[in-house]
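hey
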């Protein structure tokens, strides 16, 4: 774990299963945006390949309630309930259901992968290794304008040798397609 991450770590209140010992709470870094995929349910008995998401409010309500109850039994921290959009107590209702509302995201996440030929090519572009982009102040300005903190945060070494197109393909939702196109257009002008 990087020293920078440990400097910001705090102790969280103990759980029953930690026998009174406070666990270390560290900031997380998401290399993908799970929200980009949308919430989905599948009937694994009839659809083991998970090709047909189930949109059934009654089933989703039942499954969300079961998940919330397991989270309570497992002493999930309050921020996990917030992340999942579920109340820690009380009944779940229509406003806690997401499958129908996010069906469009599910379809978007199933589109064909982006390809290099979808973007303008130039001396530096979305296929250029990130380490090379970060060595050019003009490219850094373009990246910072569209990606903000991602540019300045600690990046794992393996990411530095990938291009933005590769990162967008692996970390779905991290760099939206429209943003990647804007970055590509601006890099082509440098």
């Amino acid at each position: 774990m990087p020293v920078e991450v440990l400097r910001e770590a705090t102790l969280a209140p103990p759980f029953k299963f930690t026998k009174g010992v406070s666990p270390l709470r560290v900031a997380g870094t998401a290399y993908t945006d799970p929200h980009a995929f949308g919430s989905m349910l599948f009937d694994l008995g009839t659809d083991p390949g998970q090709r047909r998401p189930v949109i059934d409010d009654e089933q989703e309500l039942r499954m969300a309630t079961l998940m919330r109850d397991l989270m309570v039994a497992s002493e999930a921290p309050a921020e996990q309930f917030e992340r999942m959009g579920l109340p820690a107590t009380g009944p779940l209702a229509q406003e806690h259901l997401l499958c129908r509302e996010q069906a469009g995201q599910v379809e978007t996440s199933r589109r064909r992968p982006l390809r290099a030929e979808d973007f303008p090519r130039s001396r530096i572009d979305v296929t250029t290794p990130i380490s090379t982009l970060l060595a050019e102040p003009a490219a850094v300005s373009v990246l910072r304008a569209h990606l903000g903190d991602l540019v300045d945060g600690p990046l794992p070494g393996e990411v530095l040798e990938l291009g933005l197109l590769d990162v967008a393909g692996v970390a779905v939702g991290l760099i939206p397609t429209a943003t990647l196109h804007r970055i590509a257009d601006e890099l082509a002008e440098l």
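The chain has ten helices and two strands. The longest helix spans residues 57-73.
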